[in-house]
Amino acid sequence: MRIRLQVFIVLALAGSLLPLHADEKAATKENSRYEMRGDHDPNGIGKFYMGREIAYVMGFAGASWLERSNREEEERITLLIRSLNLKPGQVVADIGAGSGVISFLMAEQVLPDGKVMAVDVQQEMLDRLKKFSETLGVTNVVPVKGTQTSTGLEPGSIDLAIMVDVYHEFEFPYEMMQDISKALKPGGRLVFVEYRKEDPLVPIKEVHKMTQAQVRKEIEQPEFDLHWSETVHLLPRQHVIIFQKGPAGSPLKAVDEPGK
Fold this sequence. Notes:
12 strands; 260 residues; alpha/beta; nine-stranded mixed beta sheet; disordered C terminus
């Protein structure tokens, strides 16, 4: 009995030294991708990704802030839409669409045959968006219920995806970027609009800002197949950072406001 027990222990120890299988490696990688810290910004969730703390999601109660009357003055969102150079017939994804302010502005640009896939994880936001669609008579904005790790978009279906002050709130940014990359068509564009953390005068909580360098660090991981294309410097408070799916080409120079 003692001999058998010794053999069992030796085999068990040997098994623990065997190389990890692919799924075990993936699990180990997943566990090391994010870090939880007790000492963190009270406006963040205490979860860190590539050195950045993830912010709390703005809930349905914040819908009125998205729809505030002075948003155009503060953020120049119509200028943002013009800078995207949308074309009729394109399929565009507004990820983290909220109640649809950005979605409706883009919807007109892709008529007559294009559409906007308005993705959000909160059903209350999508219900509000649908009600606005009916009130405004907009028929080419499609509500899509996403999850914390998936947009719910079909692979290879999107010409352009945009996230306006959204990405920094993703609880699982790596998994979401995998999903978004799959949803983009070859050559499709991915647009990040984030408050500039480089500028201390931007009146937004720090955990809700991102530097351009941090955005590029997180998005230019090889597995996403996304390459920086240009940064548009038109908005008073936000970066507009654009990536393209597929082989890296010659990056376009940053676009500045005329006369700036």
